[in-house]
Automatic annotation (TrEMBL):
UniProtKB keywords: Apoplast, Disulfide bond, Manganese, Metal-binding, Secreted, Signal
GO cellular component: apoplast
Species, as recorded: Papaver atlanticum
Binding positions (Mn(2+)): H109, H111, E116, H157
Lineage of producing organism: Eukaryota, Viridiplantae, Streptophyta, Embryophyta, Tracheophyta
Descriptive protein name: Germin-like protein
Amino acid sequence: MANSKILLLLCLFAFSFSRALAFEPSPIQDFCVADKTSSARVNGMVCKDPKLASENDFFFPGLHIPGNTSNTQGSKVTPVNVVQIPGLNTLGISLVRIDYAPWGMNPPHTHPRATEILTVLEGTLEVGFVTSNPDNILIRKILQKGDVFVFPVGLIHYQRNIGHVNAVAIAALSSQNPGAITIANAVFGSKPDIGVEVLTKAFQLDKGVVQFLQTKF
Ligand SMILES: *[C@@H]1O[C@H](CO)[C@@H](O)[C@H](O)[C@H]1NC(C)=O
């Protein structure tokens, strides 16, 4: 009996500990406005003196301004994270605006540190994410204005404008610094290149195709 209680306590302890490691740690102060001038390296950014914090440390203007979608993908992400709002430091949340030209796409990518919740303000989007190995199931949905969709942390996802007009979305992310890994760019555009022999085998492609893809990214 006593043994099973100890076991239960150990399990609870292990559970709370793994939560603390898997997500951004809870703040133990009101805020920690990032001091961008500090050269100290910590998990997050160093706090500036809270007495020096002001309203502009918690403020970003301009998310009404459309991003420029004149690029190969036909989309533009405007981030609002700890880089734009130093007061977001340690708070585990951020925002993006995404603009899509007609048939534009936010290509397959993942956020290593954040779940994303997206809402469509204008237009019609096809969105989807793929579950992890071994199933790799595509969870896909067509979204209209006002619809909300979730991309779980770490999973590869995309959005595509399937309308004839511009589309706009706002998404919140559960990290002050979610990070993004765009699959094609990371795999075919790494610096230096991943060896052709690795990519030909991994993707079952001819060497020439791999080299062509590497020139694209
Ligand atoms: C949008 O980006 C394109 C390509 O970089 C550039 O030529 C164009 O001037 C930009 N448009 C605006 C309004 O900034």
